[in-house]
Amino acid sequence: MTDLNFFQDIQATLEHETDVRENIRTAVRELDRTCRTVAAILNKVHTVTTPTVIAEVSTTARGRFPDIHNDLKKLAALIPAEQYYRYNGMWTFVLQQACYLAAYTTYLHYERLVTVPEVEEMLGVPVSLRGDLPTFHIGIEDLLHGIVSLTGELTRLTVNCVTHGDFQRPFRIHQFIVDLHSGFQLLNLKNDTLRKRFDSIKYDIKKTEEVVYDISVRKLATKPEAGGGQPTA
């Protein structure tokens, strides 16, 4: 006679797995909703690009990061011990989005690249530079994806700065993207998706280069001296 307990145990395991995944999906949706709220706040810089407005927007956005922190904490609590890599594909995209928001907010506030400790503080999640953490963490590739996303948004900001009469900021953004591209060139990227996205940075350089060239030939502004950046805070 077949031992039905064997199949009953398997069914219980499958039901538990379904519950875990559904709870994770719910938590990821909440995190995504919060990230979209912060993104909407940051999007206001494209409407008016004055230093005062950009400083106000970045400060407001920074004030919402505790919400992202809490959502990530709730998500992390749902992951069974030692099973991070079993489920991490469920939140990869939204975690990259959170990293991008941290990078973008930091740039608007200080006009520089976010640091690993700042990402960890803003999101409340450790960054694993070696990918060897069994607990909930931000993988280095997720962080890099977030940083790559930053260049496209800054390119858009460059165009809008000109529209609103801010002719100096495009020079600083262009130099930042050039420096960022140089940094990425030092990496031996194995991830095909990340490498393809990195290749897109050169197109952002070209776009911002065209903007600063037009500003220069029209004599609307001159290229600032090295180290002449003006952070908004």
TrEMBL record:
- What one GO molecular function would you report for this record? sequence-specific DNA binding
Keyword Lipid biosynthesis belongs to the record: no
Per the UniProt record, the source organism is: Rhizophlyctis rosea
Q: Which family does it belong to?
A: Belongs to the translin family.
Q: Which UniProt keywords apply?
A: Cytoplasm, DNA-binding, Endonuclease, Hydrolase, Nuclease, Nucleus, RNA-binding
Name by which UniProt lists this protein: Translin
Where does it sit, as one GO cellular component term? Answer: cytoplasm
Q: Where in the cell is it found?
A: Cytoplasm; Nucleus
Keyword check for Disulfide bond, yes or no.
Answer: no
